Each structure stands twice: as structure tokens, then as C-alpha cells.
Amino acid sequence: MPLLRVHLDSDRATARRVLQLHHEGRIHHESREAAREQAWRQGRTPAGDPVFVGITNGRRDVQLLYDVEVYSDATR
After folding, report:
1. Across-strand partners of 52?
2. Most exposed: 7, 35, 57, 63, by fewest CB within 10 Å?
3. CB under 8 A, 24+ apart: contacts of 53-60
4. At residue 69, what are phi and psi to the nearest 5 degrees?
5. How far apart are CA 28 and CA 62, in angstroms?
6. Residue 74 CB-half CA count within 13 A
7. Among residues 52, 59, 3, 56, which one has the least CA distance to residue 31?
8. What is this structure's pTM?
9. Is residue 47 within a helix (H) or strand (E), and if so which, with residue range?
10. Number of C-alpha atoms within 13 angstroms, CB side, residue 27?
């Protein structure tokens, strides 16, 4: 199944918290659900839970990065 990379706008404090939780093997549920909703908004159907892959290194605008496995588009 294809992966969809989702970028979520965030502030630095939240991004640090999500990264810390990831290092502890835990999940930031709010951002994971936001990633799932973003996949739906892009017209894709999530096939599983979004996986946190990191944060951007922007000075002003920080984004959380998630990979969301989505179903392939079936055309006939």
C-alpha cells in the first residue's frame, strides 16, 4: 500500500513534546488523529495508524511529519 507523507503545522513546544513522546515509545494522540484527518481531507482512505517520522527544522514554521498508509485508488 502506498504511503502518504503528511505535514502538520505545529509550534516548537508541541513539536518537542511529540518528539519526546516518540523517543519514549509513546504516542501524541492529538497529532496522530490530525494526520489521519489530513489524509481524509486529501481524498485518501487511511489503511492504518499514522506513523510519526519526525519534525522539520524550520526557524519559524515547524511541522510534524507523519506517514499514513493509504489504500490504492482503484480504477476500472
Report:
1. 66
2. 57
3. 53/5, 54/19, 55/10, 55/15, 55/18, 55/19, 56/7
4. -75, 130
5. 16
6. 2
7. 52
8. 0.89
9. none
10. 11
Answer whether 36's CB lies under 8 Å from 51's CB.
no
Measured distance CA(76)–CA(49) in Å, rounded: 28
> Do residues 62 and 7 touch, judged by C-beta distance below 8 A?
no
Question: In the structure grid, which three cell numbers stand for residue 19, read together?
Answer: 518528539
Q: Cell numbers of 32, please?
A: 496522530
Output the CA torsion sign for 9, 10, 11, 12: negative
As given in the structure block, the three cell numbers for residue 40 are 481524509
Dist. CA 70–CA 45, nearest whole Å: 5
Q: How is residue 65 written as a grid cell?
A: 511529519
The torsion angles phi and psi of 47, rounded to 5 degrees, stand at: -105, -5
